[in-house]
Amino acid sequence: MTLTKSNIIEKISQRLDLSPSEAKNTMETLLETMKSTLASGEDVMISGFGRFQVNNKAPRKGRNPATGEDMILNKRRVVTYKCSGRLRDHINENNHG
Q: What are the residue ranges spanned by the domains of the chain?
């Protein structure tokens, strides 16, 4: 099952004994802070969880799949995520097949 934003809000509400609206405001504030930080080009590092980083992609050749026509795709910025060693270890300790 996928953990959704509403599931996270529900868990925050229960764990911190907050009303659902307070938990939603907490979640929205966290996400807005992360979005604005990434939009400004800065990394977001959460100790024990990982790092979100903005990377610049150069323009590149591409092809329109519908027409097969060659085209140049514009430069763009993408967000990448690298998990922390602690998170990786935690995930793998529960996966001893």
A: 1-36, 41-97
| 45 within 8 A of 51, measured Cβ to Cβ | yes
Residue-wise pLDDT for 10-53, tens only, equals: 999 999 999 999 999 999 999 999 999 999 999 999 999 999 99
The CATH code of domain 41-97 reads: 4.10.520.10
Asked whether the beta carbons of 12 and 21 are under 8 A apart, the reply is no
Query: What is the length of the chain?
Result: 97
Give the residue carrying structure tokens 């996270």. Answer: 8
State the burial class of residue 23 (Cβ atoms within 10 Å of its Cβ: 0-12, 13-18, 19+).
buried
Whole-model pTM above 0.85? no
- Three-class SS state of 43: coil
